[in-house]
# Entry
Amino acid sequence: MSLDVIPRSAYTEDHEAFRQTVRQFLLKEVAPNADKWADDGIVPRDIWPKAGELGMLCPTVPEEYGGLGLDFGYNAIVDEESSYYGNVATGFSLQSDIVVNYLVSYGSEEQKKHWLPKLVSGETITAIAMTEPGTGSDLQSMRTTAKKDGNHYVINGSKTYITNGQTADLILVCVKTDTEIQPAYKGISIVLVEADREGFKRGRNLDKIGMDEADTSELFFEDVRVPMTNCLGQEGMGFIYLMSELPQERLSIAISSQASAQKAFDETVEFCRDRKAFGTTVLDFQNTRFVLADLKTKLQVGWAHLDWALSRHLKKELTAEEGAAAKLWHTELQWEVVDKCLQLHGGAGYMNEYAIAKAWRAARVTRIFGGTSEIMKELIGRKL
# Structure
């Protein structure tokens, strides 16, 4: 079982050499700790600098800000390998594939020089706080405000379902800097909030049905004062910034989902080859072979599509609807694969001691975060 046997057109020899470095790190430092971290409900901070030393964090950051100045293909390698070999949702992809792009694209020179080297090294862990209780995907209805007071913003409100919420040192908080302007999206801004600011509090580490090791939190802001220089880019442009970065975020989710589906399939083939029933192996039953043959075919198509989407993105040609389609298709495929693979495990599949049970639970959220499948269909449909 290995991702090496899958032909890939989007990657160079340098990408594949990097893959081996990432894999060895995951097998040595991450996978053996998966159960403990799941029990703890959090990935420890000390793993981040170790990943940073190997160039696994934010590889696209320009060299002048402490990064390697590489292309997104290196991010994709980390995403694939983490999903296949790491068996843990580390939070790395949030920092590398999502948060850092906002700072690189819209941050001031001062913000970039101060924060980017720390993100690359793993010294600083980040989060982005969009979702609020009761709003879900409807970002324009957010209620968290940042009101001006002299040369400061005063932030009040709450956020929920925030990945890296318990560990983040820096949070990119989506706020309303203008509550009166219409349309409402023109009043949204993104403000950098350091976790040591007075009035900032972390809520519960939320109890989820999957990805137990990934800290996912409530965040509260009560008269949190930050200088107006902490505004990311232009005031009132936050919604536009969010929309412009979504294709990469959704491609990242698609990549992880495809690799997770492949892992579940590969382990299920081995299980069915070893498991005996009625005097033969489970793999010898025609139904088993037909189910697996169907899944193998869809995975093959999935990898080809992913290469196409990744190649498009590397040329900066991936559109918003193409990114949405990638997330929709690959997350739905992931769910089909893990659900059918769990069924082939029989009663064992329902036991948490088997990897397929954890994979099944973890897969349920991918059709929700980053925009639900229903929202993806709506975005694609608008371009018909």
Notes: The two ends are 40 Å apart (CA to CA). The chain has three domains: 3-124, 127-236, 240-381. DSSP finds eleven helices and nine strands in the chain.
